[in-house]
Each structure stands twice: as structure tokens, then as C-alpha cells.
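Hey team,

Filing this mostly as a record. A colleague (T.K.) asked me to run one chain through the structure pipeline before their review meeting, and I want the input and output archived in the tracker in case anyone asks later how it was produced. No errors, nothing strange. Just documentation.

Input sequence:
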Amino acid sequence: MLYGYEGRFLGGMAVTAGVAVCALVLALFLGLSGAAAKLSGNRFLRGAAAFYTTVVRGTPELLVILLVYYDLQGLLNAAREGLEYEEVWIIPPFWGGVVGIGAYYGAYMTETFRGAILAVPRGQSEAAASLGMHPAVVFFRVVFPQMLRYALPGICNNWLVLLKATALVSVIGLSDDMMAVASQAKSKTRDPFLFYFAVACGYLLFTAVSDFIFARLRRRARRGLA
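Output structure:
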């Protein structure tokens, strides 16, 4: 059906899913860290987090991916020369895409988590603190479970957009994701519609599965509520 490219295309789907999941983990980590910084009492942390979210959200995602892949590689090799290491450091396109996409959507996750944390009544954390609970325990046992109810819709939306952004990673040389396989196949078979339609179906499948999973997570997060 795909001129013998079925195996490579399925492998490309797996690579695309791997980039998306790894980027999501990084984005969630940066989002939680950025939200904590924005809500902290430290002026420097608040300023750094505000600078990060303002700059990244005002920049095209493709530009961020290119800057991370090429400029970060250049900075690493400049540092290598300063440390007098002879081996050249090369960032694999897979991890360049992961870092670029994760850093980009980490800015959006920051605002998602910040809004969700502010939605939790302050009295909840104050009551837990009055019982002598450590701040970390207060966050993970009291604030986080309630915050998750408010954050899940935003996380789901960011994840779906992040997932589609993986199509840009082929620009930096990732040769075995869905878009790259489709591009190579259409050049040899001269049937671009078939392969790009297959890519569209692949992303639609990822989206449908993601919607199902997040719907279950939202129902679980709201269990016990009227």
C-alpha cells in the first residue's frame, strides 16, 4: 500500500512519538520550575522566569529549534576548546529536537502551572503548613493533586500542539521520523499525496489516543467532586 515503505513508516511513527514524549517530559519539568520561580518571593527568580516565558512565547518554534541545535552546539564546542578537549561534540538531531521543542513549550507549561496553582485556595496550603508539614510535602500532598485538576486541560492542549511541532525536527536532519520518511519516499515514488496523507493519518491517530488518555486522566482527577 505504501510501496514497501510500511516498515519504515511505522518506525518513523515510533521516532516521532519518542521525540514528543521526551520533549513533553522536559516541558513539564521546565513548566513546574518556571511556575515555582514566578510564584517565589525571590525577585531574581521571578524576573528570570518572566524573561524566559516572554522571549520564548514571542519567538517562532522553528527558530527556537534551530537556535538550540546550531547555537547550543557552537557554545558547547567553544567551551570544549576552552577546556582543551580534542573531540568535537555533536548534538544528535533527535535530542536537538527534544531540547528545542521542550524548551519552547516549557514556557507555555509555566503559565499553565502558574494559573493552576493560583486556582487552589490559599487556605489549603496554609492549613497544611499550620500542622507543621514541610513545604515540599505541602506541595506534593496538598497543592499538587488539586492543582492537577485545573492544569490538565492546558497540559492536554499544549501536548497536542507540541506533538504536531515534531514535524519540524526533520529540518535539523532527523532522517527517520514520519516527515523525513514521507519526504524520502515521495521523492522516489513521485506520489507525495499518498505519503503526506499517511503522515496526516499518523498524527490524527496520535491525537485521538491522546484525547482518550487525557479524558480518562481528567475524570480521575475530578473523582469525588460533585
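Quick notes for T.K.: Residues 97 and 169 are 5 Å apart (CA to CA). The chain has eight helices and no strands.
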